[in-house]
Amino acid sequence: MTPFDALPTNICEQPAAQRRTIDAAESDRLFHRLFDVGRGNATDSATKMRVGEILNMVLPENWEAGTAKKSGAAIFNEVHAPEHYNVQINFSYRGNRVSDDGAASFRSVLYKDSPHDLSTLEISSLREVLGDQADPKRFATETAKTKDINGKRCLVVTGQYLTNPQKIERIYIDRDGSGSAVEELSYTAPKSDFQKYLQCWRQSADSIIWK
User: Fold this and answer.
1) Partner residues linked to 188 by β-bridges
2) pLDDT, tens digit, for every residue of 104-124?
3) Cα 18 to the chain's mean position, in Å?
């Protein structure tokens, strides 16, 4: 499974009239803006990450930087544990805004009162944002909750794809407050290694300074 396999598939299944797409030129501009191309890499000697809405995030010690990639409109960047390429912290943006209905559902859940654990109904309502992570036949959810991370409300989902040995904890970020531009910051690792690196991943996530 590649990092792009985890991106929601249902966006591509939406009727064309409901999709918010971007052309190649806009995709290139977005790629440069998200990854600060021309002003240094999104990772600085694998000690910190600066990408998307993240102004700075301190990375675990000795982790190794990957490269920023673009596949169609989707954008991806990763760092991985030393000598363990399949233990990753990665950032991705799917390249398309979600529909108005999808954005409204995301905002409704995300900004509902104080941070809370999501109900089964709330998870189901976020199918466009969560993709396969909203489908219990494809993803076993351990926890799904909203959380304030240094002043920004985020959605955090932890669990495992049923057809893949990798476990994942993913932070969904409302990039511009509209609910339609969703950035994703994830920690993925084989089930046998997930707990080993979990604390350092969460320390990194808790260090985020937002733009």
Assistant:
1) 88, 168
2) 999 999 999 899 999 999 999
3) 22
Buried-exposed string 26-47: b where 16+ CB fall within 10 A, e elsewhere: ebeebbeebbeeeeebbbeebe
Contact in structure between 104 and 110 (CB atoms under 8 Å): no
148: left (phi over 0), alpha (psi -120 to 50) or beta: beta
Which residues face 209 on adjacent strands? Answer: 56
Q: Please tell me whether residue 11 adopts helix, strand or coil conformation.
A: coil
Poorest-pLDDT segment among 30-39, 106-115, 123-132, 150-159: 30-39
The string of DSSP codes covering 131-180 is GGGG-TTTEEEEEEEEEEETTEEEEEEEEEETT-SEEEEEEEEESSSSSS
Other C-beta atoms within 10 Å of 188: how many?
26
Percent helix, strand, coil in the chain, to 5, is 30, 35, 35
Domain ranges of the chain: 3-210
Q: What is the pTM of this model?
A: 0.81
Class of domain 3-210: alpha beta
Mean pLDDT confidence for 16-23: 43
